[in-house]
Amino acid sequence: MSDPAGRLNIQLRRTPQGLACAIRSTRPVTAASMFAGRSVTQTATLLPMLYSICAKAQASACASALESATGLVPTDPVRAARGILVKIETIREHLWRILLDWPRLSGDSPDQASTALLLARVKALLTLVDPDGDLFQPGVQAVGFDRDAALERLDELDALVARAVLGMTADQWLEAIARPDDLVRWIGTTETSAARLLRTLSAAGEASLGQCESHALPELDPRALSARLLAPDAADFQAAPSWDGCPRETSPFTRQADHEPMPALVARHGNGLLPRLVAPLLEVARLLSEVRATLTETMPASEDPRRAAPGVGLGRVEAARGRLVHLARVEQGRILDYRILAPTEWNFHPEGLLAKALSGLPMADEGRLARWAELLILSTDPCVAYDLLIAPSASCHDPVQGSEP
Amino acid sequence: MCLAIPARITQIDPATNTAEVSLGGISKEISLALIVDAAVGDYVLVHVGYALNKLSEEEAEQTLRLIEEMGRLMDEETESRADSPALGARP
């Protein structure tokens, strides 16, 4: 009970061949099986209380899985409103990192005042869109909220992002950084801690650090994914997933890789630190723009719930840190099996993206290695606390730093 | 995973805007910089050293019961995996 959320233990060890990285996790990846025996309604209510870090994404994946397992089809307005809630939550999660953690790495203080304002504005917006708090109950039909009021709250959020992060509104920023040279100019001239961190990295020659071979998680066939999540060794897959024989990445970086100015940035720096840190900034700006479009017109909902087999439903949601998958097997309104596959398990796979990025770092003194490792971990963004240990080959027991929940 | 744990505030230091909370029986210092009107006895959701928001006592206790249930399930699973060499330990 002392650490029920689990932790990641990330070790870097010097070897004659270079750095070796070992990642161990104590995350309770099979905990959702506790919902077996509960009713569909109870599960939809309790699950987001337990998984409260990305509660909207969890609730959305849960509702989709339960609805598809029970043959319920949400209306387009319900799906659109759910999409808004998940996107607003993703914006909040990215900004949390950008305002509290990024400043520390460029010598600034965490921007607690802006973060407090962010939490208050996001909460107000979420409450406006889902005033009765029942939008993720399976089968909910009616959606009624004040779109004009929601747009006003969204403008306030955009203004906060402009002041604290981008230096201009999201739409202005997307236009201003469309070409890589424009982005370089923005990084060089903007006085926010986000731009300062990117400036610090560029000046220190760290923009391309962490480049490694990585494969984006493709769209997965729902029947194949369900079969994998219901196989006898599903727990091993949930703990360290791979697809077609290789670990995959699912993150803001893979989601934004095709959007300007990422392709040129990747051509210059690969999947190194600078493109990885630009991706959540780009995602914040694009999501603000998308939510505004959904509020001003009827934009199609993005998530299509899938029934993998009779009684089995999959819910797939793009959460802040990557794709979140829920699987529910339901009979007569009761849960028989419940499985969750979270993005942290893909990205922090023992042979996955972060392990490769860290083991590819050049040899350096302990201080620099610790800074680079922290930057790479932060840019991959685990949703739990981690311990980072940098050890000489003889010993693995000297903690360099850790992140406490 | 993806969990934030409810904790009850046992002491507040207004000078540093921090609080001492009881988290799973362990005392821990957290920042109150992101919330307003926190008082001793309140339940807050804690994540990476910050109180995220206040919870009603009912909601906090329900969440803590779920976390306890989850902990028992995970313990049983660990024991069952340890007894089953074919499955082995996960990385």
Number of strands of chain A: 8
Count of domain modules of chain B: 1
Q: How much is the radius of gyration of chain B in Å?
A: 17 Å
Low-confidence stretches of chain A: 394-405
Q: Report how far apart the termini of chain A are.
A: 14 Å
In CATH terms, what is the fold-level topology of chain A? Answer: Cytochrome-c3 Hydrogenase, chain B
Order of helices and strands of chain A: EEHHHHHHHHHHHHHEEEEHHHEE
Helix/strand-derived category of chain A reads alpha+beta
Helix content of chain B: 25-40%
Order of neighbouring strands in the sheet with most strands of chain B = 3-2-1-4-5
CATH level-two architecture of chain A: Orthogonal Bundle
Average pLDDT value of chain A? 92
| CATH class categorisation of chain B | Mainly Beta
Largest interchain contact: A-B, 46 and 36 residues
The pLDDT mean of chain B sits at 85
Going by CATH, the architecture of chain B would be Roll
Task: List the total number of helices of chain B.
Answer: 1
* Largest sheet report of chain B: 5 strands, antiparallel
Report the end-to-end length of chain B measured between terminal Cα atoms. 16 Å
Helices of chain A, by number, come to 16
Shape type of chain B: elongated
Short characterization:
By secondary structure, chain A is of the alpha+beta class.
Topology at a glance:
The complex is a heterodimer of chains A (405) and B (91).
Chain A lengths: L7 E8 L2 E8 L14 H11 L4 H16 L5 H30 L6 H18 L17 H20 L3 H7 L3 H10 L3 H11 L18 H9 L3 H6 L12 H5 L5 H8 L3 H24 L9 E4 L2 E8 L2 E10 L2 E8 L1 H5 L5 H7 L6 H15 L5 E6 L7 E4 L3
Parallel strand pairs in A: 1-7
Antiparallel strand pairs in A: 1-2, 3-4, 4-5, 5-6, 7-8
Helix pairs in contact in A: 1-2, 2-3, 3-4, 3-8, 3-13, 4-5, 5-13, 6-13, 7-8, 12-13
Chain B lengths: L4 E9 L4 E6 L2 E6 L11 E5 L2 E6 L1 H26 L9
Antiparallel strand pairs in B: 1-2, 1-4, 2-3, 4-5
